[in-house]
Design brief:
- The protein is mainly alpha-helical and 187 residues long.
- The chain is 79% helix and 0% strand.
- The longest helix has 34 residues.
- The two termini are 17 Å apart.
């Protein structure tokens, strides 16, 4: 496995983390609303602000690896902030921060992948994140429910901190520093 395939696996783990994080709150929302005294409108914001913020993926990025690592760091901080949020307003703000940070990582990761996979390799490279995203979306509510039932809703956010640090290290280690030449030579 070359460095670029390892990079793709690391980026795909980020995608899986963001997908599970997205759907984990569907189950935890009741506990959050009860513990932080959220109104029903605030509960809706809590759930739908994350995917809405993911629309930030449409923002063009430059300095792809640096921006990606910055986005992962921001996701880590927003997750910690959400775990420690003393009220609903701060939690909702941190949730928006998580969504924007995830959007930055996804956009920068997509651009990095496009630099390293061209032609017939592009399709197979995209299979990896999709193969991890779908089960992560399905597993999110199960994970969120188990964490909320056995620990606290705060752990739904706090678990993201070490997972994001691992993702950050893997992406930093496995991302090749040079892209493929503009016109790759035939093999």
């Amino acid at each position: 496995m070359t460095g670029r395939w390892q990079m793709m696996v690391a980026l795909s783990l980020c995608v899986a983390l963001f997908c599970a994080n997205w759907t984990a709150l569907y189950v935890a929302q009741q506990a959050i609303s009860r513990d932080l005294h959220l109104t029903s409108a605030a509960g809706v914001w809590l759930i739908y602000l994350y995917p809405a913020a993911l629309l930030g993926v449409l923002i063009p990025v430059k300095g792809r690896l640096g921006v990606l690592l910055l986005g992962l760091g921001a996701f880590c901080l927003a997750s910690a902030g959400a775990a420690l949020a003393p009220n609903g307003a701060m939690l909702i703000g941190c949730r928006a921060g998580q969504g924007l940070a995830a959007a930055i990582v996804l956009r920068a990761g997509f651009e990095l992948a496009r630099e390293h996979f061209r032609g017939t390799e592009w399709g197979p490279a995209l299979v990896i994140p999709v193969a991890l995203a779908v089960p992560a979306l399905i597993a999110g509510p199960v994970i969120g429910g188990a964490i909320t039932d056995f620990l606290s809703f705060r752990w739904v956010f706090l678990i993201n901190v070490p997972l994001t640090v691992v993702a950050l290290v893997l992406v930093a280690l496995f991302t090749p520093r040079r892209a493929l030449p503009a016109h790759p030579r035939p093999r």
